[in-house]
Each structure stands twice: as structure tokens, then as C-alpha cells.
Queue: 2 jobs
Job 1
Amino acid sequence: MTEVKLAVLGGSGAGKSALAVRFLTRRFIGEYASNAECIYTKHLCLDGRQIHLEIYDPCSQPQRGKLPLTDELHWANGFIVVYDISDRASFAFAKALLYRIRESHIGACKKMAESSVFLVGNKQDLCHMREVGWDEGQKLAIDNKCQFCELSAAEHYQEVVAMFTKVLRAIISKFRVKEKRRPSGSKSMAKLINNVFGKRRKSV
């Protein structure tokens, strides 16, 4: 069983809770208590691998103020950063979140170098009220080396599933790379010792 920890981040009203619940239950719920935080769990099978998924949905961070994110950065294997395409302030907040995450890549948090990040422009059903262009979201994602999509948690269940699936595949792919690099117990150690002493014998 592979354990995957995913944090869904975004400003108040961006729809991050709706996005998580839509993926987990197929249901769309429009209103959530913004002062509550939850960890949702789900067991699923992806590409033949059993996964125990935990999704952390923190209480909505204020649009203004500091973004420590220390706990999330150390806990999560991946991040979904959500903004509302009809609210430019939420886009600015998502930009600040991505900057904070990117900052950790060159900081002390080594785990961030192995994490996956996905930027999501939510509420595509409010396109007639759009304040943030698709190209702006795409550029922000490119600048921060993450994936990007626009969707509607209210109307696009399959697109929500596809987005979460891409994130999970990216995380698992990095797990596999890490597994290949990691020595596999005593056999790897024995091989290492044999290689060292083998080279010594050849040099005598």
C-alpha cells in the first residue's frame, strides 16, 4: 500500500474544499465553513497500485497576511493550489502560495524537491464573470514549473477526477524514482561491499 499525502491550498472562496469533496464523493457542495480544517482519506487503485490517499484541506488562509505553510510543506507529497477565475484577489493569493512553495525548493525543506504541484483555475462555469485569463494561469504555472488546468468543481466531475489522477501519477512517478535510487537493504549493502573489495583485489 502506497501512502500519498496531498494538500489543497487556496484563499477563501476559491473552491478548494468543493474540489476535494467532488473528487472523493462525486457530490458538489457549494458552501463550506472556512474556519474548519479537515483531512479526508480514500483508498483507491491507480495503474495497479493500491493507494491510501490523505487530502489535507486547511481552513482558508486569509487573503492578506503571512504564509508560513511550514506544516503543509513538511507533511505533503504534493500540492493543489486553487484560485477562482472570477476573483483576481484569489489569483494573487495563489501566486503568493506558489512563490512560498517554490521558495522551499531552494530552502532547507528537501522534501519539497520531490513534491508535485498543480495550479487549478476553478469556477469555469462563471466564465462570464472572468477576471483572470487562461493565459495568465498558464504563464504562472510555467513560471513556477507546475501543471495547470481550468475546470469547474460544480459542473466538471470527470475533469476534477482527471486533474487529481494527474497529480497522483506525478507523485507516484517520483516515488518510483526515489525507490530506484534507495539501496534495498542487505543485498544492496552486500553488493556495495563486494564492489569495493572486488576493486581492491583487482588493484593488488
Note: The chain has six helices and six strands.
Job 2
Amino acid sequence: MSSCNIIFSLSLFITCVMVITASASNFYQDFHILFGDQRAQILDGGQLLTLSQDQTSGSGFISQNQYLFGRFDMQMKLAPGNTAGTVTTFYLSSSGYHHDEIDLEFLGNTSGNPYTLSTNIYTQGIGGREQQFHLWFDPSKDFHTYSVVWNVHRIIIFVDNSPIRVFNNLELLHVPFPKSQPMTIYASFWDGDSWATQGGRVKTDWSQAPFTASYGRYNINACLGSQQQGSSSTAYPYSYTDCVPTSTNSSNVDNSWRNLGLNAAGRNRLRWVQTKFMIYNYCTDRNKFPGGLPRECQHSKF
């Protein structure tokens, strides 16, 4: 097994980041199929998982464990061609009406037009915090790494180690923050024909089916949710010194996520991404919030 640290070429916020290697992941060990029957396939001895969708059903998988804080890296290669109406996902979610959730949804499009990466964060069952992007590459051409860092200070979403979104813990301003509900990792490929592409105006061309997306190397450095059973929902469930993270790569347990933030270079990179590639931001949508923008929108996103 091998892993290495690379210096991000644009002097990003992280001094070094872990490279996901083939030895770091095995879908047989860490996940199981959630729905879709044979439309979901674990291949290459557990190193690859494919999800397919046809007119009858989509497919999905779910992690064996629940986690409370951590870093979650997943390589994905999306379906090519005319994928209008399809939704490919990688997300974390707790259960119940007042659930927390960290969402990455890839909304398909007609041939030659880009996928939309739609991100959302739910706290205590309330979402509506969408930020959407057209990426700087075609996510169907090759595998790319999509990451979530979730600690007590903030949530950061990355694409190929570039930060695209930060949601800070602003509980002092009475903004709810996910901190007490363990979350499960989910991924799915399903039919969003009624809304996914141009608000549902462009429908799925089922003559192109089956559509197939691939999930490759991944790594999880996180605290198991079971370690914090019985914790109070009004205080941090554990001190970081009490949490011994689990990792899907036992030879490289990386704890840097616990206090990870953005330095000046990282903030500059985030500004670049949001200036060049963000196509929707709930924090500027006054039509959606006629009574005033959410409180977190009035605070620096960095």
C-alpha cells in the first residue's frame, strides 16, 4: 500500500493532502447496496462501484457505519452524453424529520451542456441552502475527487482539493449547525426528470438508458457515531481529544480535518471558484427570502 503527500500547486490552504490510493478503499468492507438490485455493481475486488439507472429504477449504496465529524473523500466519474433529468449523488445524512445533511447532487444535462453540481446543507430538518456550480472540467471524462470536511468549526466542500463552499459554525448567532446527529454516507443515481434539468423543462431521453456512473477510490477519516451515543444535543458531543478517528486506510490515519480551515491562499482559491463557476447562491436570492436573507448570509463565508 502506498500514500503520499503532495503540495497543492496553487499554494492552497492545506500544506499537504492525502492522495487516495487503491489500497485505501474496499466497497465490500465499508458499504452495501441500498436499492436497485443488479443496477448497482461492486467490481474489481471491491475497488469500483457502478450505479445505473433505467426507466424502471435507479440505484444506490450506503455506508456500513455512521460518523460524527470527519473527512470523506470519494472519486466519481459521471455518466456521459445526454443525461438530462438524471441526478447522481454523494452525501451524508442523519435520519428523522429533524435530520442533518450535507449534499452533493450532480444534475444531468443535454449533450454538450455542463452538469450542475448542486450543494445543500440541512440543519435540524431545514435546508434551502443551495449553492450551485458549473465545474471547470467535464466530470464524465475521468474520475475526480469530491470531499467533505465536517468538524465542530465548519463544513468545507472540495472538488479535487479546491474549496468550493464553506459553511461556518455560527451558533453564537443562533444559526443551527450539524453537531450531534451521526450521519451515514449515501450515494445514488435516480430520476429527477420533474426538476433536475432547467427546472424540469428538459426531460430524460430514456432511449439513452441505461445511464451509468462510477465510484472509485475513496477514503474516510472520521469518528464513528457510536462513540458518542447518549451525548447532549446542546453541547459538543465529545472533545476531539476523546475521539480516535477510524480510517479506511489504516496505514495513513489523517487527523488534520479536526481543525481544518482556510488560510489566505485557500480563501483566494474559494473566491476564484465562486466568482468563476458559481451559478446560484441562496445568499443572494432575495425572491426566495422576501423577509430577509438567512442570518449566516450576513456573515463572512470565509
Note: The longest helix spans residues 264-277.
